[in-house]
Amino acid sequence: MTTIGVLALQGDVREHLLALASTDALARPIRRPAELDDVDALVIPGGESTTMSKLVGEFELYEPIRKRIADGMPVYGSCAGMIMLATEVLDGRPDQRGFDGIEMTVRRNAFGRQVDSFEAPVEIVGVPGPRFDAVFIRAPWVERVGDGVRVLGRVTEGPAADRIVAVRQGNLLATAFHPELTGDLRVHQYFVDMVRDATA
Asked: Pfam families from the entry (predicted)?
C-alpha cells in the first residue's frame, strides 16, 4: 500500500490524514526525521508558513526533507505548503526558510487576511469532473513559474480571476487552496496517483 506522510507540526494535519485515508493510501503523521524513512511521499499542510518554517527548523527536518525531495520523493503542499515548496517568497519574513522545491515565486497572503477568505471555482488540469470549489484562507498565489513548472489551475472568475493557484514540477504538486477542507477528494487522489506512478 502507498504510504504518505503528513508533516504534523502545525496546520490542517488531521484533515489531510483523513482525506488520504479515504483514497486508500496509508497516511501517517511525520514529526521526526527518522519517520521520513517509512513513507513514499509527503504532504505539507496548510497552516501558518512562518510558524511552520520555525518548527521545521526546531524539529531538524529541513535537511532530511530537502534530501528526500532531491532524491525524487513526491510532495504535495497546500496553502502554507505551497509557500514552503517555493524557491522565492514575497512578503515573507526575512528569516523564513523553505524547501526550494518548485521553481516559482509565491506571494504570501496574496488574497488578503483571514476575514477575506473565500471560495472560488478552479479548473485543474488532469483532475476530471467539474470545476473544483476551492477554499482560500489567507492564501498565496503564484506570480512567476520557471520553465519546468506546469500551471494546473487558475481562479476562473471574480476579482482574482486568472491568478495561478495550482502547479506541478516533476513529483512536486502545490495548491494555494485547501482541498482537505472540502470533502472533494480529487486533488488528493491526483497526488496519490502521482505517488504510485513515481514509485512503480
From this structure: SNO
